[in-house]
Specification:
Radius of gyration of chain A: 13 Å
Largest interface: A-B, 16 and 21 residues
Number of strands of chain A: 11
Shape of chain B: globular
Largest sheet of chain B: 6 strands, mixed
Strand content of chain B: over 45%
Helix content of chain B: under 10%
Order of helices and strands of chain A: EEEEEEEEEEE
Oligomer: heterodimer
Strand content of chain A: over 45%
Number of helices of chain A: 0
Chain lengths: 115, 112
């Protein structure tokens, strides 16, 4: 298995532009997580899905952020409009089972820079 | 509120010595405590985890201990090697969804 696949690896955009990050979880995993990592705030959970259904989106910073999981093998995180403070590494992770207390398999991350 | 405190933020040890990183958590109902290692520019990877029905778990040079009464758990690395240099994160499951709450991370430096 190729593991969790994220794209793009790097994204540089200008303030106000729309950004879409993509994730393909490991086949057979029931749960998918979007995390944001910065030096100041560490690892923050933005949203997690179980069986394609959003379970907890309380970590989504504001309405500019949205996430979808149209099927078991694909998820997107969209930022519209983007702002410089959104610059961070965004990780997608997946796990087996229905609970959050299972091993997380992280993707390689997307380094986002908003100028 | 729900939080996990991790100490120290940076730890420098001589190669071959032991390293200990400690975390405390706020929710006595927490039942899952993983440790992740993140090398520079890489993804976090699980190195060991423990559940609340166990007090200690070992995997070769790595061990985790859990004290539920005191609400703290620790990562122990023995016979440290250069490849152990990384940032280590602890986490604890909390809340109605047993979400993982993460510590701020410890940068471990192994001196040759």
């Amino acid at each position: 298995d190729a593991g969790v696949i994220q794209s793009p690896r790097h994204e540089v955009t200008e303030m106000g532009q729309e950004v879409t990050l993509r994730c393909k979880p490991i086949s057979g995993h029931n749960s998918l997580f979007w995390y944001r990592q910065t030096m100041m705030r560490g690892l923050e959970l933005l949203i997690y899905f179980n069986n394609n259904v959003p379970i907890d989106d309380s970590g989504m910073p504001e309405d500019r952020f949205s996430a979808k999981m149209p099927n078991a093998s694909f998820s997107t995180l969209k930022i519209q409009p983007s702002e410089p403070r959104d610059s961070a590494v965004y990780f997608c992770a997946s796990s087996t089972g229905d609970a959050t207390n299972e091993k997380l398999f992280f993707g390689s991350g997307t380094q986002l820079s908003v100028l | 509120g729900e939080n996990v405190e991790q100490h120290p933020s940076t730890l420098s040890v001589q190669e071959g010595d032991s390293a200990v990183i400690k975390c405390t958590y706020s929710d006595s109902a927490s039942n899952y405590f993983p440790w992740y290692k993140q090398e520079l520019g890489k993804r976090p990877q699980l190195i060991i985890d423990i559940r609340s029905n166990v007090g200690e778990k070992k995997d070769q040079r790595i061990a985790v201990t859990l004290n539920k009464t005191a609400k703290h758990f620790s990562l122990h690395i023995t016979e440290t090697q250069p490849e152990d240099s990384a940032v280590y994160f602890c986490a604890a499951s909390m809340g109605s969804n047993y979400q993982l709450i993460w510590g701020a991370g410890t940068k471990l430096i192994i001196k040759p």
